[in-house]
Amino acid sequence: MSDKRNPWRSKTTIVVAVLALSLLFNMPGAFADSGDGRLFLSNSTRNRVDVYTPNGSHLAGIPVGVNPRGMATRDGRLYVANRGASRAPGSSITVVDLEHLAPLETLTACEGCAPYWITFDPEGKLWFTSQKDRSIYVTSPPYQVPEANILLMWGWPTEVAPMGESGFLVVGMRDSSDFAVVNTATRKTTRLTLGPTPSSVFSRPGHEEGWVAADNMGFLSQVTLEGETPQPKNDSFKAINFIVDAVFSADGSRIFVSSAKPMALAVFDADTRKLVGHTEFETPPGSIALSPSGEQVAVVFAAEKSVGIVDVSEPETPELVRSFPVGENTWHMLWLP
After folding, report:
1. Is-contact 136 146, C-beta < 8 A?
2. H-state helical runs in the chain
3. Per the CB 3.0–4.6 Å rule, which of 24, 84, 124, 218 could disulfide with 241?
4. Which is nearest to 43 in space by CA: 329, 241, 248?
């Protein structure tokens, strides 16, 4: 017998191996794509939540209610506010199993109230804004029936975010220059002024603060609590025009802001409020989300129906490193482990 190998057999083996590896690393959930969590995008056109790896592999399209908007997580579950004004699956909240990427149940939020944004307070109660009722609702586990709603009649409630573990929430507004701070224990509200369209709100990790953006004017407001009986106070500064969204670094020291004009992602020092760095795009950025590692920011580009990944490991020089196509009309995005 000859020890000489069949050259065609060797080449075939190599080709098969290459194809196998190619398939492996392009499969949803494959190792090459799963190193830094998953992106969840509420897709109001297809009434679903799309799930992608950071490299653009589409893992799932999870069916939810009509016109999904804001999302929040708790205890391994994703809660999705469905803004459709009809009865369920509109005006509802879909609960999704994050492990299996499948809907578990649909909660009747309220009768035709069009829930928009959603969050949890430190006690585990679920709060969501209703634009139709100009209210914010609260419900306790198992979140089947709202127990109360608070009227915010001077505008249209938009986003809602907790102020750390303080038990206060900050609520954005549309068609108003004022936003709201809600004491979740007493359910009393404080009305604070920032400027036209203070609709975007967000939490600062590690701090009992809420931040608000006056979208068109480009102001950011830092909302803090003062006194033995805590009273909210806001202090604003000019950041960048036409703010669309913002997110803090994991330690709360930096704030990343997407702007439609200039079309850019800007990085600010949260304490000094100075611009640290920025990068410009060829199309307006929208919703943004921070990666679990804290080294990347995902940016929705609605005009291109895509998501870009920006390397922010060096905040002074953020850089767009790749992008991939996604579904249309993404309203909210989360980047989860």
Report:
1. no
2. 7-24
3. 218
4. 329
Count other C-beta atoms under 10 Å from residue 47's C-beta: 19
Alpha carbon distance 330, 118 (integer Å): 16
- Burial of 8: CB neighbours in 10 Å, binned 0-12, 13-18, 19+: exposed
Name the residue type at position 41: L
Q: How far apart are CA 148 and CA 183, in angstroms?
A: 13
First-to-last C-alpha distance (Å) of the chain: 56
CB 257 within 8 A of CB 243: yes
* pLDDT, block means (10 residues), the chain with 337 residues: 38 36 37 70 95 97 96 98 81 96 92 93 97 94 93 96 97 96 96 95 97 93 93 96 96 97 97 97 97 97 96 97 91 96
Q: Give the residue among 168, 287, 275, 277 at the shortest CA–CA distance from 230.
A: 168
CA 6 to chain centroid: 56
Both tokens of residue 233? 């106070």
Q: Which amino acid is at 335?
A: W
What's the token pair of residue 217?
């004017």
Q: Between the CA of residue 181 and those of 154, 172, 186, 189, 234, what are the distances in Å?
A: 13, 9, 12, 6, 10
Please report, as a single letter, which amino acid is at residue 158.
T
